[in-house]
Amino acid sequence: MDRMEQMVGGEVVLIDILLYFAISLAVFAILDLYAGKRLGGKQALGYQALRIPKFISLMTVGVVSVVIGVLFFGGLTVKGSSVTFFGVPYFSMWLFYMVCVFRRIRAEKNRDRY
């Protein structure tokens, strides 16, 4: 017996994408506040070094959101089981920025120790 997967339309995917985008902005804002407090404020050099990773993360999240949105406004439908994989770029950018923040904090702490 052949199982038919249910196809998901653009509305469901767009809601997921908007949710991923909003959560991404919240995660980046929380990490940014944490880094600012731990590194000594927005004028500290350690904090300024995080501008490029933050830019890369925000640009990637924005581009992925726009591309997926345009594809689904164009009428693309996917299987219900593959909708979960649209969160992979968002999760990878959260992880990338989180690693950058914590590595920068550790580097600044070690630099101050010596």
Protein topology:
Blueprint: E1 7-8, H1 10-39, H2 45-48, H3 51-73, E2 78-79, H4 88-113
Antiparallel strand pairs: 1-2
Helix pairs in contact: 1-3, 1-4, 3-4
What does this structure look like?
It contains four helices and two strands, in the order E-H-H-H-E-H. By secondary structure, it is mainly alpha-helical. It has one domain. It has a two-stranded antiparallel ribbon.
Number of strands: 2
Major sheet attributes: 2 strands, antiparallel
C-alpha-based Rg, rounded: 18 Å
List the domain count as a whole number: 1
The side-by-side strand order for the widest beta sheet comes to 1-2
| Strand residues, percent | under 5%
Mean pLDDT: 88
Rounded to the nearest angstrom, the distance between the terminal CA atoms is 68 Å
pLDDT below 50 for ≥5 consecutive residues: which ranges? Answer: none
Percent of residues in helices:
over 70%
